[in-house]
Design brief:
Layout (H helix, E strand, L loop, with lengths): L1 H18 L4 H41 L4 H7 L2 H21 L4 H35 L10 H24 L3 H10 L1 H7 L1 H16 L7 E4 L4 E8 L3 E6 L4 E5 H6 L3 E2 L1 H6 L2 E9 L9 H9 L4 H19 L26 H14 L13 E4 L7 E9 L4 H18 L15 H6 L14
Antiparallel strand pairs: 1-2, 1-5, 2-3, 3-4, 6-8, 7-8
Helix pairs in contact: 1-2, 2-3, 2-4, 4-5, 5-6, 6-7, 12-13
Length: 450
């Protein structure tokens, strides 16, 4: 071996200096420095040789199989640390033969190289773990999943075991001794590091149970968080709000508190519309034949009104038929598509049915089974009679969704007056609407001109 020969040559040179009458201390210092210089130079050359060979080998394999693994390993310094590890292993095995002329150096150097071997082994393992994170982040199907929390947990576990092994090497004791001591101190450690332990456990649960992913839209009112998840670590989740601010949420709170995740809505490519039109109750009335005829003449309402006109004619014919008006009250006339309500046809009923008719024919509103589409009348309140539209758009993209919703309500607000209805609006003089409707104002006697 070249290095062993060089050290033997240095030892003989030192002996020659001693025979020549040099002071033994000076000779020993000179030979020691010479040995160290040779070891450093040889190690440096061997390190670069191993590193170049490993780098070229890994890149050649990566280029052959068209993968990014080679670049990721180099970027995470796994190749360089592997070179250090091989050097430490080689020298640890060769030290007894190299320093046989200096037996006092063997034990401390071997312990030092053992520690170096352990350190680089730990760095290689953790580097490979983070290479997995980099690799999955670059794949399209894994961009939304984050293994960062699990990798951070595994990294902590690896360094924890490494610390136990390091102590056993330095103190020449079995690792089981330290593990047993940790068992006795576990209660104190859990008390001191309670928040950190809770964060670790929560981070693992987030990744394992797939509660949130990178790219998910989540809402947590407790933290004023309403936006997209941009990063998931072992102890925190980073959310970029829609106003471009960043909210950092402890991972434990995502487990213990309520969080709204809109992922399923985004994946379904549908989004719910749940909004009401408040109808002014002063405009609600029964439909006169002339009013119905007027509605039927409207081009936009012709297809909608035709079934109702037909049902009204059938009802009129049934009322004038011989024997009509005897027996039990007949059920309201209906077809497969429409029906006449019991008690008479009102303009608000027609408007409600027209909204449903309009939504079912809207190209951007989902009409398939499984997606509820209805127009319901909610309890009357201070702001009129709410007619709530409940349906789903055929897209979950935010801007497009808002455009569709606005288009729907633009149309409905414009159609309300056609049915003789007014959308409720609070004014400073609430009696004006009553005067326009020909009804007595508040505080005025019936029949008054006021």
């Amino acid at each position: 071996m070249i290095l062993k020969s060089l050290i033997a040559l240095i030892a003989r040179f030192g002996q020659s200096l001693t025979d020549a009458g040099w002071h033994p201390g000076t000779v020993r210092l000179t030979t020691t420095l010479a040995v160290l210089l040779c070891v450093v130079l040889f190690t440096w050359g061997l390190y670069w040789l191993v590193r170049v060979v490993l780098s070229k080998t890994v890149r050649a394999i990566a280029n052959k199989y068209k993968t990014r693994i080679g670049d990721i390993l180099v970027g995470r310094h796994v190749i360089r640390r592997t070179s250090y590890l091989l050097i430490c292993i080689l020298f640890n095995a060769a030290i007894p033969g190299i320093f046989e002329e200096f037996p006092g150096w063997i034990a401390p150097l071997r312990k030092l190289l053992t520690i170096g071997t352990l350190w680089f082994a730990l760095r290689i393992v953790t580097g490979i773990l983070w290479c997995i994170v980099d690799y999955q982040a670059g794949r399209q199907q894994n961009k939304q999943r984050s293994f960062k929390g699990l990798v951070q947990f595994a990294t902590i576990a690896v360094y924890f075991l490494g610390a136990i092994i390091l102590l056993s090497i330095l103190l020449n004791k079995s690792p089981l001794v330290f593990i047993g001591g940790l068992g006795a101190a576990s209660a104190v450690l859990m008390l001191i590091f309670k928040d950190s332990i809770l964060g670790l456990v929560a981070g693992v649960q987030l990744s394992y149970n797939d509660i949130v992913r990178i790219g998910d839209w989540i809402t947590m009112s407790k933290f004023n968080a309403d936006g997209t998840v941009v990063d998931i670590t072992l102890t925190t989740v980073k959310v970029q709000n829609f106003d471009l601010t960043i909210t950092t949420i402890p991972a434990y709170n995502l487990i213990s508190d309520s969080v709204v995740n809109w992922r399923n809505m985004s994946d379904s490519k549908h989004r719910r519309i749940q909004r009401a039109v408040n109808i002014d109750i002063t405009g609600i009335r029964f439909c006169e034949p002339a009013f119905l005829a007027h509605l039927a003449q409207e081009e936009v309402l012709a297809a909608f009104m035709m079934p109702y006109i037909s049902l009204l004619e059938r009802e009129k014919s049934a009322d004038t038929a011989p024997g009509a008006g005897t027996g039990a009250t007949p059920a309201p006339l209906s077809t497969d598509a429409v029906r006449l309500p019991t008690g008479g046809l009102t303009n608000v009923y027609l408007f409600r049915k027209y909204i449903e008719f309009y939504l079912r024919r809207h190209p951007n509103i989902e009409n398939a089974p499984g997606y509820t589409l209805m127009v319901r009348q909610q309890p009357m309140e201070d702001y009129g009679l709410p007619l709530q539209i409940y349906c789903f758009t055929r897209t979950s993209e935010w801007v497009t969704y808002e455009t569709i919703q606005a288009d729907v309500f633009d149309h409905l607000l414009a159609m309300a007056p056609v049915f003789g209805l007014a959308v409720f609006e609070r004014t400073a003089q609430p009696d004006v609407r009553l005067e326009e409707a020909g009804l007595p104002t508040i505080g005025a006697p019936a029949g008054s001109d006021v």
